[in-house]
Design a protein that fits this description.
The structure holds two protein chains of two kinds. By secondary structure, chain A is mainly α. Chain A has helices at about 20-25, 45-55, 60-80, 85-110, 120-135, 145-165, 170-190, 205-215, 220-245, 255-275, 290-310, 310-320, 325-330, 335-360, 370-380, 395-410, 415-440; strands spanning about 195-200, 215-220, 290, 360-365. In chain A, helix 4 packs parallel to helix 11 (about 290-310) and helix 16 runs antiparallel to helix 17. In chain B, a hairpin with a 2-residue loop joins strand 11 and strand 12 (about 240-250). Classes of the chains: A mainly alpha, B alpha/beta.
């Protein structure tokens, strides 16, 4: 235990003065924005604290979850024959959203540092193109080696970005804007004179594997067993952690909140698997969870652990919150920033491979500019701050689903592209407004909550 | 007084590289520290002694070089010239990590806290405890709670609240707790009371005395002469990058400190004229 270092046998520092209580009793101004999960003793108290915090402008993930629900309800009502809520459409929505989700998780790393990466749309395209090229008949690499190669290539691209930004001290905005053009050009060169690459062959197993990320399905029974295992493990981990902390008198959420979280995870899992296991085929039966769903969950889990449970993740939050404080604490800020750009591009490569699978290949028509804007929008809508210091992997998931739902719903309505763009823009604007307001620390005397 | 060539304690001659002759070697001894930024010379051959168990107040007007000197000791800046002796041993402090390894901790005026992190996370920033490769939150939280309790910082609602939600006094308390929870031997505080009210200033001054009583060397940078005369054992005055006076507190009064800060000399002291001769 670290108390004041003193001579052996010395007791910890005694009181710092008789009027200590008066000295530090200055909490009144700021209590409103304390995360309710750490001070509430019961679920009711938690909810009241949460309402106060939403008013303060910082609300966690629940508002975006409600936004998602609202979008779903609106589109269910207005879509022809309520087709939005059909199993076929919802699975399609998961597939479409997966690209936005994974891209947003990648962008989240650099947003967390208060930076931005404008190139990830075309970096993703390069990732998809490399993987697709390597499973063509001539090299015919194993599918896993093709994916690995794509990830490595894009990690290298991220390293170049990070190196230029940290060593040459250039703004990320400009460097990645240059990257946007540069990698677009490189992608066209890789795609060659054909202007595209396809992975829809039914005789090459490695192409089938890549194509199957989106278009191969998990056996319904296996999906249920898998869900049970995931929810069981995750629920046990959450319960043991919170209960253990409560027992040792450490800061822990109330029992009701722990239970509510576990129920929420289980409920969401059951809904997704149930939807995917309804037959959605027109002639032949099509059932099962697409492989892209567990893939996204693996990325979510990995990046959540990296950000919230490792020393490196802690350092990312510190650099995003106060780079100077991080530097004085001995953190290698340049290294953290470079790694953030590497992780961003690496994750983008995975998004590109998913996109390639979804489209059955890639052509030079890919719109990397729109992809990067949707990725930033998804992360910000999910709750990641554009100003750095606040962001989680799950923000990418929720924001990506919102973007995917709007994209999908407006398509179902047959609205022309201009309305899709306008509505997505408005939603983004709303999300950024919330972000900016929360930064001003509405209703508190505390400094900006980045 | 205040002439390093006529030392009162262990102050040796000001020529850099002089070997210590006194038995009461200070914890940290700086000799001839110079630092420039481009064309601006921030420090001219500064000598300072920081003995254990004493509070040394570093005074000086704006731009005197107080912060630069502090940052040289903390490893943020590397001096262009000069030597540092830690417990009599020549050391080179090039990074904040070097300083921390020796046991030097700094509480900056801006406190260097990450607003988005909670109290525990800030106190362990850069030195997180790990267990099986992952952050050991439970152990860190217990240790942070123990330190805060020993400092009687009890009014924070939760040790897990983000620092952004704390008041000025609480933030200062967290920053001090962060500095002393390591195996520190020298704690430097940059204007610790500048942003605080009366009651909180009282708390921080008491805390400084307590650190001293526990055998730590403390250096306090302060404009506030009331604070200086309340807690300091020794006073060092910088003016335009030069150390113009350095002695026990008893050798000064408020007016002489002000004189040294503003003019580099004081007629109120018999030997004061010697001070200006130093290091030129």
């Amino acid at each position: 235990m670290a108390t004041i270092p003193t001579q052996p046998g010395d007791e910890p520092l005694p009181a710092v003065g008789a009027d200590t209580d008066a000295a530090v009793d200055l909490t009144a101004a700021a209590v409103e924005v304390i995360p309710p999960g750490i001070v509430a003793q019961s679920l009711g108290e938690y909810l009241r604290g949460w309402v106060a915090r939403v008013r303060g402008g910082d609300a966690g993930v629940l508002p975006v979850a409600f936004a998602l629900l609202a979008v779903a309800i609106v589109f269910t009502i207005v879509s022809p024959n309520h087709v939005f809520l059909s199993s076929k459409n919802l699975v399609n929505l998961f597939d479409q959203s997966a690209v936005f989700i994974v891209l947003a998780m990648g962008e989240g790393f650099v947003l967390l540092l208060g930076e931005i990466d404008l190139s990830i749309g075309y970096v993703a395209a390069i990732g998809g193109t490399v993987a697709a090229d390597l499973v063509q008949p001539s090299p015919n690499w194993p599918w896993w080696a093709a994916i690995l190669a794509a990830l490595l290539v894009c990690a290298g691209i991220g390293a170049i970005h990070g190196f230029i930004i940290t060593r040459l001290r250039m703004p990320a905005f400009v460097v990645t804007l240059a990257g946007y053009l540069l990698w677009f050009g490189v992608m066209i060169i890789i795609l060659g004179t054909a202007g595209g690459v396809s992975i829809t062959s039914t005789v090459l197993p490695n192409q089938e594997a890549l194509y199957g990320i989106v278009y191969a399905y998990i056996d319904p029974l296996v999906a249920w067993v898998g869900l049970l295992a995931i929810v069981g493990l995750l629920g046990a981990a959450m319960w043991l952690r919170d209960a253990g902390r409560r027992r040792s008198g450490l800061v822990a959420p109330p029992v009701g909140l722990t239970v509510a979280k576990i129920v929420l995870v289980a409920g969401a899992g059951i809904v997704v698997v149930a939807i995917c296991n309804v037959n959605r085929g027109n002639f032949l039966p099509i059932v099962g969870v697409p492989w892209v769903v567990p893939l996204v969950l693996v990325v979510l889990g990995a990046w959540t652990i990296l950000l919230e449970r490792t020393q490196f993740g802690r350092h990312m939050y510190a650099v995003g919150g106060n780079a100077e404080a991080a530097r004085r604490a001995g953190i290698n800020v340049s290294r953290v920033r470079t790694l953030a750009f590497i992780l961003c591009s690496l994750t983008a490569a995975l998004a590109g491979i998913i996109y390639c699978s979804q489209l059955g290949g890639l052509t030079t028509n890919i719109n990397g500019g729109q992809l990067v804007l949707y990725a930033v929008a998804a992360a910000v809508i999910g709750g990641t701050s554009l100003f750095g210091g606040r962001g989680r992997a799950i923000h990418g998931l929720l924001g990506g689903l919102v973007i995917g739902a709007i994209y999908n719903g407006l398509y179902l309505l047959g609205l022309p592209i201009q309305w899709q763009l306008i509505i997505t823009g408005l939603v983004l604007l709303a999300a950024v407004s919330v972000d900016s307001l929360s930064r001003k620390g509405v209703g508190s005397g505390a400094t900006a909550r980045a | 007084m205040a002439d390093p060539n006529e030392p009162t304690g262990s102050l040796p001659a000001s020529n850099p590289g002089a070997t210590p002759v006194s038995a009461s070697e200070p914890l940290l001894r700086l000799r001839g520290i110079s630092k420039h930024f481009g064309a601006v010379q921030a420090l001219y051959g500064v000598d300072v002694d920081l003995p254990s168990g004493q509070v040394t107040a570093l005074c000086g007007d704006n731009g005197a070089g107080k912060s630069v000197l502090t940052k040289c000791i903390a490893g943020i800046h590397e001096p262009d010239q000069g030597e540092m002796f830690w417990e009599g041993r020549l050391v080179h402090i090039r990074t904040p990590g070097d300083a921390a390894a020796l046991g030097i901790e700094t509480v900056y005026q801006d406190l260097a806290l990450a607003d988005n992190l909670d109290i525990v996370q800030n106190m362990f920033l850069g030195r997180e405890r790990l267990s099986r490769g992952l952050l050991d939150e439970d152990s860190m939280e217990r240790a942070a709670a123990a330190t805060l309790a020993s400092l009687r910082v009890t009014t924070v609602r939760s040790i897990r609240q983000p620092v952004a939600t704390l008041s000025g006094g609480q933030r200062q308390a967290v920053a001090v707790a962060k500095a002393v929870m390591w195996n520190s031997k020298l704690v430097m505080l940059d204007e610790p009371t500048a942003a605080l009210g009366v009651a909180q200033t009282r708390m921080v001054l008491d805390l400084i005395v307590r650190l001293k009583d526990h055998g730590l060397a403390v250096m306090v940078i302060s404009h506030n002469l009331n604070d200086v005369f309340e807690v300091a054992d020794r006073v060092a005055v910088l003016r335009l990058g030069r150390m113009v006076a350095q002695d026990q507190l008893s050798a000064f009064d408020r007016q002489s400190v002000v004189d040294f800060m503003t003019t580099g000399t004081s007629t109120r002291q018999v030997t004061a004229s010697d001070a200006t001769a130093m290091k030129d």
